[in-house]
Design brief:
By secondary structure, the chain is of the alpha/beta class. Helix content is 38%, strand content 16%. The two termini are 12 Å apart.
Length: 313
C-alpha cells in the first residue's frame, strides 16, 4: 500500500495557551514516534495546501467562517494574544492559517486517493474538526475537516456513497449535524457517554450508527460493537471512500477520557475499516487526526494506525 502523511508547520503555530491540552506538542509527539518506530521513511510526506473558502462553505455558514476570520488576534511582539470562541476554543494569530491547512490537508488527501496517486492517507493536522458545527466552532475545533473532505468527495468528485468512521472518545456532533439524513453519507462511531458534548445518544438519522458506551469500556467490548454494529452497516452502504475521524483519546492512558483502549485495539479497528475499504472502495481511506492528549499514547497509537494503513509489519 502507498500511504501518505499530510501536514504543515502552520498546524503547529496554532496554540491556545500553555494550559491547553490541544497543543502543538501533539504533532511533535507523532513525528517523534514515527522516527522512533523507524517507519517515517516508509511513508510519503506531503505538504498540506490551503483550503479554498468555497470548499469550507459547503459545510459551514458564512457567519461561522467570518467569526473565525474576523477575530484572529494580530501578531504582536508583546506576547501571545487570544480570542475565545468559547471556554476551551481560542484563536491566536496563526489559527486561521492552521485551520485552512487542516481542511486543505483533508481535501488534498481526498483528491490524491480518488485519483489513485496513493492508496490511503493520514492527515497529521490541528486544529481538529469533528465538534465544529455548521454554525459555530466548538470543542477545540474550528472547521470540520472530515465533513469538508466528505462533502468535497461528493460535490467535486461525484461520489454517491461515502462513509465516515469516528473512534474519538467524544461524540462527533459537528460531523453528525453536517450529514443528518444525507443518504450518500453513512457515519458510524462509538463514544463515551454521558460525556462532552453530551450528544449522540438518541438516534437522529437513519444514516447514523453512533454507539454510546459507558466509561471504562475496554477494547474487547469495542471490538464486539464494531463487529455487530459498524461492519454490517458499512458493508450495506458499500462506500466508495472511507473517512476516519481518528481520535486516540479513548486510550487508557489519556486523562481527557475514561475508556480503556490500547494500541492493539486501534490497529484492529483500522484493519476492519481497511478490509471494508478494500472490498468496496478500492482501498481508499483518508484518516484525519482528532483527539489524543497523552503525548506518548498518542504517538504510539498513531504509529499502530499507520502500520496497518501502510501494510508495515
Amino acid at each position: 500500500m502507498t500511504t501518505a502523511i499530510y501536514s504543515h508547520p502552520d498546524c503547529k503555530r496554532h496554540e491556545m495557551g500553555s494550559w491547553h491540552p490541544e497543543s502543538p506538542d501533539r504533532l511533535q509527539a507523532i513525528e517523534d514516534q514515527l522516527i522512533a518506530s523507524r517507519i517515517d521513511s516508509l511513508i510519503e510526506c506531503r505538504e498540506a495546501p490551503v483550503a479554498e473558502l468555497a470548499a469550507i462553505a459547503r459545510v459551514h455558514s458564512t457567519e461561522a467562517i467570518a467569526r473565525i476570520h474576523d477575530n484572529v488576534p494580530p501578531l504582536t511582539g508583546g506576547g501571545p494574544e487570544y480570542y475565545p470562541l468559547d471556554g476551551d476554543t481560542l484563536l491566536n494569530a496563526h489559527s486561521w492559517n492552521a485551520a485552512l491547512r487542516a481542511a486543505g490537508a483533508a481535501i488534498a488527501a481526498t483528491d490524491a486517493v480518488i485519483a489513485g496517486e496513493i492508496d490511503n492517507a493520514f492527515c497529521a493536522i490541528r486544529p481538529p474538526g469533528h465538534h465544529a458545527r455548521p454554525s459555530e466552532a466548538m470543542g477545540f475545533c474550528l472547521f470540520g475537516n472530515v465533513a469538508i473532505a466528505a462533502r468535497h468527495a461528493i460535490e467535486a468528485h461525484g461520489l454517491q456513497r461515502v462513509a465516515i468512521v469516528d473512534f474519538d472518545v467524544h461524540h462527533g456532533n459537528g460531523t453528525e449535524e453536517s450529514f443528518i439524513d444525507e443518504p450518500r453519507v453513512l457515519m458510524v462511531s462509538f463514544f463515551q457517554h454521558p460525556f462532552y458534548p453530551y450528544s449522540g445518544a438518541r438516534r437522529t438519522g437513519a444514516n447514523m450508527v453512533n454507539v454510546p458506551v459507558p466509561a471504562y469500556t475496554k477494547g474487547d467490548e469495542v471490538r464486539q460493537l464494531v463487529l455487530e454494529k459498524w461492519l454490517p452497516a458499512l458493508h450495506a452502504h458499500k462506500p466508495e471512500i472511507i473517512f476516519i475521524s481518528a481520535g486516540f483519546d479513548a486510550h487508557r492512558e489519556d486523562d481527557l477520557g475514561q475508556m480503556s483502549l490500547v494500541e492493539a485495539d486501534y490497529a484492529w479497528i483500522t484493519q476492519q475499516i481497511k478490509q471494508v475499504a478494500l472490498e468496496h472502495a478500492k482501498g481508499r481511506i483518508v484518516s484525519c487526526l482528532e483527539g489524543g492528549y497523552n503525548l506518548s499514547a498518542l504517538g504510539r497509537s498513531v504509529v499502530a494506525h499507520l502500520k496497518v494503513l501502510a501494510d508495515i509489519d
